[in-house]
Design goal:
- It is a single chain.
- This protein has about 260 residues and is α/β, with parallel strands linked by helices.
- About 40% of the residues lie in helices and about 15% in strands.
- The strands form two sheets. A seven-stranded mixed beta sheet has the order 3-2-1-4-7-5-8, with helices on both faces. Strands 6-9 form a two-stranded parallel sheet.
Length: about 260
């Protein structure tokens, strides 16, 4: 099967963005799995690792895979504060008819994207993986306190920002090229709350959001501290709501539109 590499200048059908920091061990099986999956597909693909300031040998590991994965791109921009800004770099800088971001630990394997294609045929341009709707599959479940915090946070997110969306935080989301190029330039949150922000922006732009059940594995060794993350997420949730209410996102979107017309 033919893959589009970053050197051809062609736009791939699917671009996969993977933010990475100190994932030398976990990125290896992830890339093997992705490569094996893409080899069987009949569309062009590009896999972009946004390497965000690793202090282990992640770069060397990824460079090793580039020798056999023509579709693999390694981008090492200046390190930024968190996962959110790494995702933003990938989604704004790279191209594809569809752009998907996923986690380096392969908690949701790339093959789950197959469940998204039906939604694209229905006209959806923002399609997100969900662990909390019928049909999803969770293995190696989290401790009760993490589940409680997660569900409580989601209820608050639904009440204040995104009614009806059961899981805003799963790291497996896909956007059409048009949606990605409108939404991600306006993203301002660098850390864990960025998922809420990009979905709120999608809603502001009147994109319908399709939630699709996915397979999710708790791979352990999470660097997320639940209480600290919950406090930070609440703060970011309130920030997003305020920016929507005071019109700052809309003003930024108008400036973006004006700039693109003047270019």
């Amino acid at each position: 099967m033919e893959h589009t590499s970053h050197s051809t200048g062609e736009r791939p059908f699917l671009t996969v963005i993977i933010p990475t920091r100190n994932e030398a061990e976990r990125i290896q099986p992830t890339l093997k799995d992705i490569h094996a999956y893409l080899e069987k597909q009949d569309y062009t693909a590009q896999v972009v690792i946004i390497e965000n300031g690793s202090t282990d040998n992640s770069v060397e590991v990824i460079q090793g895979f580039q020798k056999t994965m023509d579709e693999l791109v390694l981008d090492s921009p200046r390190p930024c504060p968190g996962k959110g800004c790494a995702v933003k770099i990938g989604m704004t800088k790279y191209d594809g008819e569809w752009l998907l971001f996923m986690d380096a630990d392969n908690a949701t394997p790339l093959r789950e994207v197959e469940k998204f294609w039906a939604a694209t045929k229905e006209g959806y341009e923002v399609i997100i993986g969900s662990r909390h709707i019928k049909g999803s599959s969770i293995t190696a479940d989290q401790p009760w306190y993490r589940r409680l915090l997660g569900r409580s946070a989601n209820l608050l997110i639904q009440v204040l920002l995104l009614p009806g969306i059961k899981d805003t935080q799963a790291g497996f989301k896909m956007f059409s090229r048009d949606a990605a190029k409108k939404i991600f330039p306006l993203q301002s949150i660098d850390r864990w709350g960025f998922d809420m922000e990009i979905l709120a922006l999608a809603k502001m732009f009147a994109y319908k959001i399709k939630e699709v059940p996915i397979e999710w594995h708790d791979v352990g060794e999470s660097r997320l501290r639940p209480v600290k993350a919950a406090i930070g997420t609440l703060s970011e949730l309130l920030t997003i709501r305020w920016r929507l209410l005071n019109g700052s996102y809309r003003r930024a979107a108008n400036k973006q539109t004006t700039a693109s017309h003047d270019a």
